[in-house]
Sequence to fold (573 residues):
Amino acid sequence: MKIFKDSIVVFFALLSFVFNSCSSTEDAQYVPPTLVNLQETGLLGQPVSIELKNFEADKLQVFFDMEKARIEESSENGITVIVPRTIKRNNPTLKIIDLNENKTIVEKTFLLKKPIVSSYSSESATFNETLTVYGENFDTNKDFISVFVNDEKAVIVNNDYNKIEIQIPTKITKANLEVKVKSQLQETTSSVALALKAPIIKSIRNSSVWLQTYLYINVENFNPDSSLGELFINGVPSNYFTVNDKTVEVIMPPGPYKDFKITNITYKTAGLTTSYDYDVKILNDFIMVDHIDNAGIDHTIFTHNNKAYALKYAMNDANDSANRTYSFLEFSPVTEKWTELSSFKYSGYIADAVYDGEDTVYLYRLSVASQTYSMTKLNMNTFKETAITLPSNKIQGPMIFAYQDNLYLLSGLNNDQGNTTVRTQKYKYSKNNNTWTELASTAFSPIPLVANGSSGQCKYIFNGGNLYLSDGINYRIFKITPSLAVTANPNHYRLFFDYGNSIIVKDVNYWSFFINMETNKSVNLDMDSLFGYSEQFFTLNNQIYYLRNSWSVYYQNTIYTQKLRKEILNGIL
Fold:
């Protein structure tokens, strides 16, 4: 019995122990992790240390905004996580979640460190040059960093957290360089001074050059993008050039030049200018001194009061060649430039225009609608225009020239409903008396009548008190003296220009020669490269000029005014 009682006591004692043990376990409280210390700034892709207590590393999740961070290491004192490169802003919210309770135990703002520029490898740099930017808080991954110089993106050569090697962009328009660095999802603008290196022209390789060939220039610090630089030869913009390493190759413009040599090269870029003086001989026998835009010139250029004048026209309607607007261009021997005068304007069609060698230009006008002609005389001193009544308003294509205060109108064609006949009448107009006189049929008899189907429009030159006419009908030149005696040159010459007391012509059968009409001395020239098909010459201040359609890549679709090298005539004067 006693044994039974002892057994019962032992049983209840064990049962009491078991119950006590279970009650103690149920009453214990869960202790969540607690934050001890947090690194609140950092860099993309770099570790951030978080000190914790009472944590289980595999029961924690860390987020930067919505981006989960990888736990790189853990210890009894905390964890190390990597800042995700996928975050979208530089101040994300850092959250730590305890998975045991699925609760956020930490929620703080985390800041990416702002990039700082402290210095450069040099105080100045040039285009495409490698420059090192020193500082802090950059990046090792090129996909997460960019550098801008004057707001132009630079090529990154190498980079780490403390320095970036870049190439200076070419699209730079200011010499003071501002560097911006974008990294750690933010931008910083450097306050450290940085300047563009000044361009330098070191030398010119050529001692002589042909127009439209290459001039070679040794340079430093030129922009390799030629569109962002300006090159000037004797002050002339030279747009067709390339920059290769330290050499500039420029296609020589035909002008405008004053003389047959290059004396200065100037270059501008990004607000910087360099200039270089050096003599380079131009080998061509001509240079362009000016160009005329959007104009045609049909009539002889003449000189008056030591200036040259050209009657130019512009087409009002591309489909109507007779619908034109005329004005005068004035050429100064000082500037060697044309200026359009506002003193005279005419809309219509001028069939012929001749100067009398003194002060008057006669304008022979055609009314296309009525097929009738009218004439005016224009005083070149006052630009006063006066109408002249013609002997007939139906004379088509007469030979017109003016000499010694008189105007002469010879021959021409009658056009009767398409049936043309040659006129034999010859007329003289007195500028002083404002009267017409019909001349004898023998007047100016060496000069032929206008041929059927042609025009009597002629070229003329005043020289030595005489008038020289080139009729264009049978390629003959006629000399008219003050006594009105007419001498026909026996050769088939075309009139070009006078120089001194000499009349320079070309033989229609030997087109490559300039000939002195008085002495028949000649010089063989490359006429195509010199003149093309031009026959518009004038002499002014002992210089020879002529018009030619544009022939180079410069000033296309314009009319060049070119100056001839006078020395080519030395053998025939």
